[in-house]
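Below is how a single chain appears once it has passed through the pipeline. First comes the sequence as given, then the structure the pipeline wrote out for it. We keep one example in the README because the format questions we get most often are answered faster by looking than by reading.
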Amino acid sequence: MKTKIGIILTFIAGFAFAQQDVTTPEKSARPIHPQIQRPARPDTMSGPGDFKENIEDLKIAKLKRVLELTPEQAGKFFTAYYEQEDVLKSYALKRNKLSEELNKMSGVKDADENVLKQKLNEFDNIETEMHQKTIEYRRKLQEGLTVKQRIKLISFERQFNKYLTEMAKGVRDRNRPEGKQ
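Resulting structure:
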């Protein structure tokens, strides 16, 4: 089922972005800058790795077009971008694991209140650190991007994430058995 959804999402995203004048997949597979290539990453998410890579390739191709980066800017930007993505993914994994623990503990009637408070504080600390890392990343971008490029980046990130969320909801709704909401 996950594979089927992944294939459908990849197809939809590819088609939709192709309609929006994004560079072709052959171009997006090229290095961003002669000295910079996508770092090799272990697949930390369940499901097919190709799906995640296809979405990332689409995002990178669109980012390159929207930001209109010079070769020098591209080198600095994508180095910082990949570092930030890796940092946020590691925090997200910690947060999701802790969230699962909290969810399980909340269902236990005689759960120790002090332990729950400690876990909740850990959760809050992770979210605070994630926010702080995002602020540091944006400050780092001040060195290499213009103000307009930074604004375009923020706008693009929000629009891209909204688009993926809506696309996933559409696939989920289409795959939901009739009569269930």
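Residues 71-106 form the longest helix (36 residues).

See the next section for the split statistics.
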